[in-house]
Amino acid sequence: METKSTENPLPSSYDPKSVEGGWYEVWEKSGVFKASTSTEKPAFCIVAPPPNVTGSLHMGHSLTYTLQDMVTRFRRMQGYNMLWLPGTDHAGIATQNVVEKELRKEGKTRHDLGREAFVKRVWEWKEKYGTIITRQLRRLGASCDWSRERFTMDEGLSKAVRRVFITLYQEKLIYQEYKLINWCPRCQTSLSDIEVEHKAVQGHFYHIRYPFVHDPADGLEVATTRPETLLGDTAVAVHPEDDRYAGLEGKSVDLPLLHRRIPIIMDEYVDREFGTGVVKITPAHDFNDFQVGNRHQLQRINILNPDGTLNENAGPYKGLTVAAARKKIVEDLEAQGLLLKVEPHQHNVGHCYRCGTVVEPYYSKQWFVRMKTLAEAALKAVAEGETRFIPESWRGEFERWLNNIQDWCISRQIWWGHRIPVYTCGVCQIQVAAEEAPPACPNGHRGNMAQDPDVLDTWFSSGLWPFSTMGWPEKTKDLEIFYPTSVMVTSWDILFFWVARMMMMGLKFMGQVPFKEVYLHSLVADAEGKKMSKSKGNVVDPLELIDQFGTDALRFTLTSIETKQRYVALTNQKLESSRNFVNKLYNATRFVLMGLSGGAEFKPLSPSDQARLRLEDKWILTRLSIVIVEVTKDYEKYRVAELSQTLYRFVWNEFCDWYLECIKPRLYAEADPVEKGLAAAVVVEVLDNILRLLHPVMPFVTEELWHKLPGKRESIMKAQWPKNMEDMADLNAKDKFEELKDMVTAVRTSRSELNVPPSAQVHISTKDVRLPVGSPESTLLKTLCRVSEITEARSRPPKSALAVVKGGELYLHLEGLIDLKAEAAKQEKERQKLEKYVLSIQGKLANEQFVQNAPEELVEAEKTKLQESRDKIIRIEHNLKFLES
To answer: Nearest-CA neighbor of 330 among 253, 233, 225?
Structure first.
């Protein structure tokens, strides 16, 4: 990677598209992303959350991978043997749905192909489209070790999955049983509890009379949101201490429509205070009812087919969909005088996390993992500090979920995925768990061993990711060096889906936690702070943002807003600000390079230069030293928004706005080549450190600019992380320069507000201000404010503007520079205009509807405008006093 000569300054504007693709190709070919198994460097490891093989880059990926890449580049520059291990997930239900959609276009179903041919078709689809997401991650700048890329259905990972299943099965931690589970009629598969998304839905309470068998003219009033499930009722329940229903135990009611006799039972599950205090019990279609049914040994009547239509147990409603059956049943109840009333009612309804279909509680035979023992080990590890959560508040959520964990339904009724390695003998029905099909069952029956048709939940294989990707169950060098991994960076919404399961599996099969830290970041919301979703039409495509703003601008925006809240808002304003920052850095570098070109041979800054440093040099080097310490700590503590803002302020406000302005005459017009060389040495030193500090967040522009600086340079990724420059720091000089900044700001503000022509040289008098004639401070003040003369004054001179600064006052002599009367008239007009503006803002902020409904940022912006306007009015009134005197 040759350094380009400073004789050829950068083009006048930065074009991300012409830079980003080229540098990524150079990085990947150079092998700089690869971790080593033969180095003495300390190891640091991150395993990337595997995106679905069906996926395209979305904002969630963008933030996760930006943060992981930030950590990776930072630790690599710190000297760690850095492994960032990437891969993709086979995403069972999602991928099968995609391929089935393609088949439907051909007029076929998977059943037309058969299992073997369908799975082959999915593999073909994966080979053709499965690399889209990884190519897009490269556009984002992800510096993963692609030589170690894995797929959850690789042969090695599949072997790990089989080994884990068989071990848990043999230890009786995996079992098969009929239970009530979540069922998606669209995907026609079971779902685990956390794969069900609960959404508020506007429905109804249907009040139905269940006639007594012993007195059909009377009965019990039952309220339900799902009247179609009454077809599966096997009891009605009341609380045993509810006096309203004393004496009913042992009696029965007639099930409406089907006229089946069902008992009245007593159970403390019933809430006496809710509704009528009577609950219908449908053990095969409600989780609470299932438990009640177990206690009372009630029959479980399943009324649904796998596709969500009603089956033969539904009598005359057989073949109807749930929606159609509900409508017909309500009509029939009303016709028979059994529908007492209907009330609107909002309630939470479970939906499939993949396709959005309403999930039905469904009684079927499934495979489960006993979770309590596994959860206890994970809870113990966290309690003993083996894994730390960032932010710490997520530890409580993690512990709460594990303390209330239910057994995990791991079987799925689809074809794409890890098939359950259990074989059943067709003769004696004995089951055997094995990595390969056994030739015979333990009883000696040969050739009749049928493998279970179900596949494992995708999250089962994902839960093994930290160690299966490194070669387990073999003992590999990667496992020896990089396990346990250093940190897991992912979004908080998969804490239970994935992080908790990795913890449990890692402890069970590796004897160690899978990661020492868990950093759970925010989810990216739209500009109004609302969750992005296709149904809302507010989804933002990160690839479009990259095309519009550049990758570095997108990455810097994402780190700037990552405040560890649950949702953070992404706005165009923030993206534009980040793009401006990238351009500012580029233009500052171009300014420096143009100052270097054509001059004497460049010599880097050395300790021997310290005695010759000017005030502004000492200040910027001291500030740089402080920023290096602050930003390094922020990187280490994952204070992402803080480090981004610190670097933004330092680069824009201090380096560009102040230091470059101070050294412009030295760099461009200094007659003394030695002095110019010193200024060049300092500015390149600072810029060099800035690029290294920013590189983990903004990799492309920093690499491009890094190679434009003097000297022969390898990739910035191989550069050493900046160190505290305390040997060059001078806190006294820093304080002096800060005082000077206040003076410069005060003079510039007065000049601007009083409309002093920019080209005019002004005479300044000082009172009680530490500004010795000929001092570095006075020289800089003259340069930065176009000051012709600085004198001392015991009192305020006539026709002068006052600027109050630390310790004293500055006076700007205005006679001859402006027309005082005309300026007074302008100031008065401006004051009146501002007073009207203040009244309008006060009215807006006094409007409670505006304050409550407007985005918080907008309200704060209005408050800021109000305060700034009030401050300006005070300054104008101050000016008018002397202009009119």
So the answer is: 225
